[in-house]
Write a structure and sequence with these properties.
Elements (H helix, E strand, L loop, with lengths): L1 H17 L11 H12 L4 H11 L9 H13 L2 H12 L6 E2 L1 H9 L11 H13 L6 H7 L9 E2 H10 L16
Antiparallel strand pairs: 1-2
Helix pairs in contact: 1-4, 2-3, 3-5, 5-9, 6-7
C-alpha cells in the first residue's frame, strides 16, 4: 500500500543517514543491508545474506537504492509465491547461469551443516551430503522430492524444475538456506 511504501522510504532514508559510505545519499552498502536484515528478520547466514544483497542490487553498484529497497522488500514481505520462487532461485543460483548446480548446492549447504565428525573436514562432510542428496539417497523427504525434479540427472536444477518441486512442497522454497523472513 501507499503507506507501507512511505514507511519503507522513511526507513531507507534513516539507513542512508546512518551509513557512512561513498554512496552520498544514493543508497547504502552491504554492511548496512546485512545489519538491517539481521536485526529486522534474524537472518544470520553470511552466504545467504550476501546473495540476498546481490538480488536486491540489480544494477550491481554495490549499494541498494531506494527503488531496489522497496521492490526487494515488497517481494520478501508481500510477494506472491511466483515472485518468491524467482527470488529464492536467484539467491541459490550463485553464478547466475539459470541453474542450481551441484557446486552451488555445496556452497549453500556448507555453512548450514551444524554437526560434523571430529575427524572429518567440514567441506568433506558437505560434499558427502550433496552427493547423497544428488543420488536421491537422502533420508529427508524434502531433498528427495526436490531432486526428483532433476529429470535429466545432470546434477543441476533449472527454474522450471525448482518451480515444480516448490509447488509440490512449499517448504522447498528455502531448501538451501533461509532467505525469506519468517511469518512473524
Amino acid at each position: 500500500s501507499k503507506s507501507e511504501v512511505e514507511c519503507l522510504v522513511k526507513l531507507f532514508d534513516t539507513l542512508v543517514a546512518k551509513a557512512s559510505s561513498q554512496f552520498a545519499g544514493a543508497g547504502f552498502d552491504r554492511t548496512v543491508f546485512r545489519d538491517t536484515l539481521y536485526s529486522a528478520f534474524g537472518m544470520t547466514d553470511d552466504v545467504v545474506l550476501d546473495r540476498v544483497f546481490s538480488t536486491f542490487d540489480k544494477e550491481n553498484r554495490g549499494c541498494i537504492t531506494v527503488v531496489e529497497w522497496v521492490e526487494g522488500l515488497a517481494v520478501l514481505l508481500r510477494g506472491t509465491l511466483e515472485e518468491k520462487m524467482k527470488y529464492c532461485f536467484a539467491v541459490y543460483d550463485l553464478n547466475g547461469d539459470g541453474y542450481i548446480s551441484k557446486e552451488e548446492m555445496f556452497q549453500m549447504l556448507k555453512d548450514s551443516l551444524l554437526i560434523q565428525p571430529a575427524d572429518e573436514e567440514p567441506d568433506e562432510g558437505v560434499k558427502d551430503l550433496v552427493e547423497i542428496v544428488l543420488k536421491k539417497m537422502a533420508s529427508t523427504y524434502l531433498f528427495v522430492t526436490f531432486l526428483l525434479q532433476d529429470y535429466d540427472h545432470d546434477g543441476k536444477l533449472s527454474f522450471t524444475d525448482f518451480e515444480k518441486a516448490v509447488r509440490d512442497e512449499n517448504l522447498l522454497l528455502e531448501a538451501f538456506g533461509p532467505c525469506l523472513p519468517d511469518i512473524k
